[in-house]
Every structure is written in structure tokens, then in C-alpha cells.
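In this section we walk through a basic example: taking a raw amino acid sequence and producing a predicted 3D structure, encoded as C-alpha cells. The instruction is simple. Fold the sequence below.
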Amino acid sequence: MRDLCIPLETYAYDQEFACALLIGLLEPTLKRYGIKLTDAPDATSGEAAKSGTGAAAPSADAISISDSDTALQEEKVPSPHEPEPIDSSPSTDKEAPSQAGKIYGEMISELVQNLWRVCKEDCEVRLRAKIEEKQQQVTARVEAVQALRVRAVRAIMEVDGAQVSSFNPSAPDDSNNVLLYEASCMVNGIPVTLHVTYGNLIYRTMVPVFARTTVVPFEDVVNVAQTTSFGIQVVSMGLDTTKHTKGITIAMGLEVDLLFQLLHEIFSMHQREIRASITALPPLQQQETEKNPAELQKILCSEEEETKEDE
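The resulting C-alpha cell sequence is shown next.
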């Protein structure tokens, strides 16, 4: 049981640790805007907490009565997981005619085998129940931290008066251009100033004369991974080869792990939006977009153009 649950616990711990890294990176921005993630728990968790509180404070009489009722029910109704008791004592009235041709040792061997079979089945049922319970616990923990990661990013994007990136001019109320993170780092071996927004990854070279600004939409990102280059931890981002000649490698100081969590979370949020858009399409268009992702981009662009024309 322990060996089976260790991978589940490890996965839950990794997700919680990744969430802590992301919150640590966004903490200065959250404090600047006065955002508290614990101020807005969802209604489901609130109702669950209330019901749990109400159920956790019964009177002593109620506890004693319920315990006595439970004891009586357990005496009357056997538990479905408990093995049925097997009478190992030989009965001369019932078993003598049917077991007349068997010696005493064979009878004992059959009883032991039946008892072993019942105990084995009961252990398997209990083990499956424990594993399912552990999976439900781990699923709840992972869903909670993933929701917290999304809430942290969304809270900064939706706050009033949020600072937008100066490297990519846009409307003041454009939430996709809200500055989530700013730092100095190395991109593909060139010192740059990096801006991370929900819509784009923007960096400007620090060379005074040949300064150049590059805007990489997260829609063009294929994958985000953390690798090692010459013994240094870096963040590697694969880009769409039809639009970009090569990918991006970001190297920086101690915050490289935290930056990876932010970029990976934004990339995951965009991927979830794309999957939601695919499921919302008719079945024939779903097949086309699954085979050719570029087809989905054409459909989304055409819908945006129609919306602008209507306006």
C-alpha cells in the first residue's frame, strides 16, 4: 500500500511546490496591487467548510447514541467488506453424508483454502478502496493548487489600474498586455530586458545603438521546458517553425525556476483555451482542427474579423 501511494504523494507534492514557486514570483506584484488570494474562496469550498464545521461539533449525547446505534447495526448487519465467518468445526449432521469419502486432512485443507480465498478477496477490496480514496485526495489537492495558480494570474490581469507592458503598445484596458513579470536576463545569449504578459513574451536587447524589441505571442509557443545548458539551468521554449526560425532559451539567476513556472502556467492556460475552442466547434471542424492546428487559427481569426465588422 505504501509503495502504491508514494507516487501519488510525490505528484501532489510536486504540484504544491510548483504552485508555491509561482506565487513567490508573483508575490511582489500581488502586494503592489493589494491582491489577497485567500479573500475570494469559491462557494463550493465555503459550503463544504460550513457543513464540515457543523458536522464536527455534535453533542456528547448524540455521539454516544450514534455509537450505540452503529454498534447495534454492525451486530445485526454484516459489513459487505468483512468476510463471512466460516465454521471450521466439522458438523456430523450436515457434512458427514457429503464428506463421507474424504479424510479429515482433506476437509481441513479445503477449509483453509476457502478461508484464504475469502481473506484474499477481502484484502483486494480493501486495497482498491484505499487506493481510490488516496487518488481522490490527491486529485482534490492538485485541483486546488492548479486553481490557485490560475487565480493568481487572473487576479493581476483583472485588477483596476494594472501596469501594461511599455514594450508592446496597446489599449490601457487590454488585460492580455498587463505586465506580470519583468527582469533582466539572457535570451539566446544576448542580454535583454524581459516582459512577460498573458498574451506575449516580449524582450528588448540592452545594446544602446542596436536595441531591438521582439514580441513572441504565446499562441506560437509549442512547448515550455526546463533544461541545462553548459551546466546552467535555462528555460527552453519551442516555437512554431512556420513563423519562427528558432526557439528561445532564457538564462537568468536564481529565479529561473520561478520564471519557468510562470511561463509554463501561461502556456497551459492557452492550451486549455484552445481545447475548449475545439470542443465548441461542430464535429467536422473538430476533426479538421485536430489534424491541422493551423485550421483552428484560421477559424478563430475569421471569427474575430466578423466580430470587428459587426461592431
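Looking at the output, two observations stand out. The longest helix spans residues 104-158. The helical segments are 2-32, 43-55, 60-76, 95-98, 104-158, 256-279, 283-291, 293-310. In the next section we compare this with other chains.
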